[in-house]
């Protein structure tokens, strides 16, 4: 399906191209370091080079694309600095969301969280990283929404897009799935029991473990390149 076919009459073509390329980068279909050739992308998406060029500028502003002298645009690398910056903020926001959710979550939302934990377990059996990552996002989103703080929901939503590539990198490591399930269960128990202190501690550790695992993978890749 060409990009024009996916656009609606209210959405500028550059935004459709931007959303398409952004999704490809976030899901790993377009790899870090991959060059963004305007002619190739225009042919692939069935558009002119103008919306491609505009979309690349927008992606650069989001930090998903970098401009390399004499080479042009390429998908931004997943860096240790970028990882730490994103997860430091996410850790603080998720801990706050957890504390608020423990106070404000409804019984219906507790049941939704239980279902989300079970859905995540089922997804790990598929070995499909994208589906597993989506199940993980949905689980965390329930907690953030249960905080009842619209501004917090907005801030986490904006950060989630930047975090998605890191989350996907983590989930690709099948050896981590068992620990992820255990951590989700601990988070669920804290919310169910409305234990603010234990909940905040559990979710901080959850994100810290994610950071350490991804850092290890990045360092291993560096050694392989050398």
TrEMBL record:
Keyword Transferase: no
Source organism per UniProt: Candidatus Eisenbergiella pullistercoris
Top-level taxon of origin: Bacteria
Molecular function via GO: DNA binding; DNA-binding transcription factor activity
Keyword vocabulary terms for this entry: DNA-binding, Transcription, Transcription regulation
Domain HTH gntR-type: 11-78
Name of the protein: GntR family transcriptional regulator
């Amino acid at each position: 399906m060409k990009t024009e076919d996916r656009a609606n009459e209210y959405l500028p073509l550059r935004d459709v191209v931007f959303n398409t390329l952004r999704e490809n980068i976030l899901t790993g279909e377009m790899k870090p370091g991959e060059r963004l050739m305007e002619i190739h992308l225009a042919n692939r998406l069935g558009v002119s080079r103008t919306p491609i060029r505009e979309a690349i500028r927008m992606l650069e502003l989001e930090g998903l694309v970098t401009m390399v002298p004499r080479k042009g645009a390429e998908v931004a690398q997943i860096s240790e600095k970028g990882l730490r910056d994103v997860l430091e903020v996410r850790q603080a926001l998720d801990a706050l969301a957890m504390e608020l959710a423990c106070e404000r979550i409804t019984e219906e939302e507790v049941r939704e969280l239980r279902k989300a934990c079970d859905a995540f377990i089922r997804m790990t059996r598929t070995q499909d990283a994208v589906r597993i990552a989506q199940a993980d996002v949905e689980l965390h989103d329930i907690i953030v929404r249960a905080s009842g703080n619209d501004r917090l929901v907005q801030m986490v939503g904006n950060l989630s897009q930047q975090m998605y590539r890191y989350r996907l990198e983590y989930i690709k490591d099948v050896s981590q799935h068992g620990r992820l399930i255990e951590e989700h269960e601990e988070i669920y128990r804290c919310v169910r029991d409305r234990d603010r202190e234990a909940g905040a501690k559990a979710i901080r550790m959850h994100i810290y473990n994610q950071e350490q695992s991804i850092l290890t993978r990045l360092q291993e890749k560096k050694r392989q390149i050398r």
